[in-house]
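job 3f2a | input accepted
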Amino acid sequence: MKYFYHFLAFSLFGMLFSCNSSNEENMEFREIKITEADIISFDEVVDEIEFIPFLIPEDSPLKLSANEPHLEIDDKIYFSVGDFRDASIHVFALNGKYEQTFKKQGDGPEEYPYINGIDLIDDKLAIWDQRGTFKLYNKTNFDFEGVKKLAGVDINFIPFYQSLGDGKWILVDDYSGEVDENSYYPVFQLLNEKTEEIKPLSPKTREVTANLIEGQIAEMSDKSYILNFGASDTVYHFKNDSIKPWIKLNLADNNLPEDSKLDPEYFFENILLNQANNINVGTAIAANDIVRIAVFGIKKSPEIIQDDLDSFPIQHLYIQYPSMEFKVTKAFGAFGGKGYEKDGYFYEVLFAENILAYLESNYFGKYAAQLEAAIENLVDEEDPILLKYNVRVK
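job 3f2a | predicted structure (394 res):
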């Protein structure tokens, strides 16, 4: 989430299935082709939707600006804007009502310098440092409850991770500059904490991925995982310590040529700005066994304007697992980030500076009135709104 993520962030502000033999047969690797004709409006794929206003009292104002937000949801909503200058965690009820703020920012042993991620580990709130360590806090009073360090990890920077349970993890490997004889490097590492062994998984990529989304993992209901990374033409499926190709993405017969992935300068000037080719951005998140992936360029933009949300040609591809049926809509939200999921719903934080653009463009279609009603319930119109939704592709 380097150049591309920050470019977008600053330019724009950023069927349950059980495991059985028939499902395995449906998992045969095949290509899906996405064209401009496949793009439909967002309200055509929505099954359920809710706009939850963050209700912050006037006497306790919070600065909730659009940075690189972090969100975790269980019986409460834990939210941080990701601002390194003020690494606070704000707690809200599930209806959006503000309850309290936690902050233990600092360099002490029970403190964290900044927030690179929020998670829940053993019913504790976990602050991730992107180097293999979590600091754990009580969810109610934020008392410090220890440190969880991934055993056997010697990676300077871990852009993303996924716990597989039983001491196993998939870690995204940051590009170190080291490549093989064909200029590829491994994207994912499989860690076994019990043996402290770490080994690369088979997918490899080239340098340009380091400037996109370096890798993300989405958990499915059968405890398998979908793996994706920037500029990849293939999306992968991981199960029982084995990984294999799941889907080949044909992006309107205009995928980025393999050799172009060696030249980031060419990529940004000709792909990002001139829209010469279409690319898989590299995101992966799943809700109710529907995987959401961001792609760039299927429908070209007349002009990319850096401060205009609607000018970026990014689409959300929703793929049903394991059938591979799909729908495509214009994207929204934190394009370079993973987004959030809980109990079969996708979540996105809508910040005030972008909500007006969504209304003006009628992005939410027949659900726009619900968004307007949520705005009316805000104490301050500058406060964000949490979008909760799920989709249907059949």
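job 3f2a | The two ends are 32 Å apart (CA to CA).
job 3f2a | closed
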